[in-house]
Model the fold of this input.
Amino acid sequence: MRDALARKHHRQQALLRVVSQQRLSTQADVVRALRRAGFAATQATVSRDVVELGLVKVARDGTHAYAPPSAAAPGGGMERLRRFCEDYPVEGALATNLVVLRSLPGTANALAAALDASRLDEAVGTLAGDDTVFIAATNERHARALLGRLTTFGIARKGTK
Amino acid sequence: MRDALARKHHRQQALLRVVSQQRLSTQADVVRALRRAGFAATQATVSRDVVELGLVKVARDGTHAYAPPSAAAPGGGMERLRRFCEDYPVEGALATNLVVLRSLPGTANALAAALDASRLDEAVGTLAGDDTVFIAATNERHARALLGRLTTFGIARKGTK
DNA sequence: CGAGAGACTGGATAATTATGCAACAAACGC
DNA sequence: GCGTTTGTTGCATAATTATCCAGTCTCTCG
Done:
């Protein structure tokens, strides 16, 4: 399944790119743009990606267009998290409404700080130990969504569910 | 037609208000919220208002919700606060008679200054740290009212509401 | 005053988006 | 290995949103 995960990640990256560059007013447009970029996906998949990436559909000058989340546009605090995940191997697991992340010993606080700076909507609070971070979500559904978003930063899903 | 114009304006104001205060995930929800606020309108009209006001439908926490773009109604010396909230994501929470706001690291003082300049009646005093601002109200009732007003500026309510 | 233009709205419906379901692939535990 | 669990996707379709069109109201001009 590593294949599928990698494909998904690449597709979502491409998705962010095309929506920020072009004016795409429907998901069908997005599908076409992705196809031109070499990614095959259906409208259903795009719809799910939109949720996971937190994209918005804005109404502007009488028309509509998809856009990246405003927080991500000005290079919001998420850049730090992204860099962290590039520098260190981080694994994420689900425990009901809790997302449990494990990184290298001594780096948990830095990771938690980066998470806080990212202002992830689903996160109610974070708690860091030495190499482990707990992220509390309001419920299992949100925790699941949160972990999904984190994988877009390069965090690897770990079993133990 | 003066009537119709005024009605439209009032409705759109109410629309901005309900959308920034509640989590409305469909236009049908919006219609119901408006009706509770004393405004009759159909989904078709709401759809048009959404375009006119530049509202966005954001995907968050795995669900969807309408939100103000970053523009809202006019105010007094509150313009600075409004602009601040447009530029930075600010979250507000309630702690008895205290309103706790969190913004991006290093911006708390600017936020507090903007709050002071707004001369909010309910605020007895403000105290800024690095990314957090405390606003003291005389009592819980006032704190609650204050947070409600702040949400009309685009400050997101944090916590179970 | 009556005709015409322009603004706003709702009903009906076309267009678009979200989701239940099933299929399949990978990872885990035994 | 083999059964179980989790994750991703497409298809079909339900749910939601945008828009066409007609009706009403008001203002303006002749």
Remarks:
- Residues 71-75 of chain A have pLDDT under 50 and may be disordered.
- The domain at 78-157 of chain A is CATH 3.30.1360.40 (Gyrase A; domain 2).
